Amino acid sequence: MLDAAEVLFAEHGFAGTSLRMITQRASVNLASVNYHFGSKEALLQEVFSRRLDPLVQQCCQRLLQQQAAGPVPVASAMAIFLETAQQQVWSRGRDGGRFVRLLSRAFIEPHPALQGVLPKHFAPLVMAYKTVLREALPLLDEATLMWRLHLAFGTLFHALAGNDALQMVARCETVDADDQRMVMQQILPFLSGGMQAGTG
């Protein structure tokens, strides 16, 4: 049922997906959804929880472990998120890519049910990164730090989704957004440079 909901939410959005569509795809009856989840909103929460909670917990744990040894370099902090997301997303093949598309939709779809999902899951991760990067980049003021975090996470999720933006707008054959090795190789210096710009 969760797999069916994830597919349909990713394809049609929350508003465009009915419980009937989910039950038909999952080959279950409507009573099963109501019994296990209670509502479409609760089902959406569970779809996100099963993917995001392990990702956030593992990232925060790794950041804490690194902090115990001293300030965490910016590149290392960015690598922790990307490596953990790679394990949780790319290693799952098509399922992982589907979830990232759902996550991308949640960022832009103006539906209260979707907008309420993200803070619940991501707040601990954002606070952990804010703490780590505040130590690594003491010269940045609060507003600049948060802007750079905002842009860094947007870049990371875009990369994980495998969006071939350059191919779509310029028919560029050089960049393959599905090449995980090259994404890792290119994105870390890009993010590190952006986060540290103007700090010496």
UniProtKB/TrEMBL annotation:
PROSITE patterns in the cross-refs: HTH_TETR_1, HTH_TETR_2
DNA-binding region: 18-37
Pfam families for the chain: TetR_C_30 (PF17939), TetR_N (PF00440)
Highest taxon of the lineage: Bacteria
GO molecular function, one term: transcription cis-regulatory region binding
InterPro entries cross-referenced by the UniProt entry: DNA-bd_HTH_TetR-type_CS (IPR023772), Homeodomain-like_sf (IPR009057), HTH-type_TetR-like_transc_reg (IPR050109), HTH_TetR (IPR001647), PsrA_TetR_C (IPR041586), Tet_transcr_reg_TetR-rel_C_sf (IPR036271)
HTH tetR-type domain location: 1-55
Entry keywords, A to Z: DNA-binding, Repressor, Transcription, Transcription regulation
Stored SUPFAM superfamilies: Homeodomain-like, Tetracyclin repressor-like, C-terminal domain
Signal peptide: none
Protein name: TetR/AcrR family transcriptional regulator
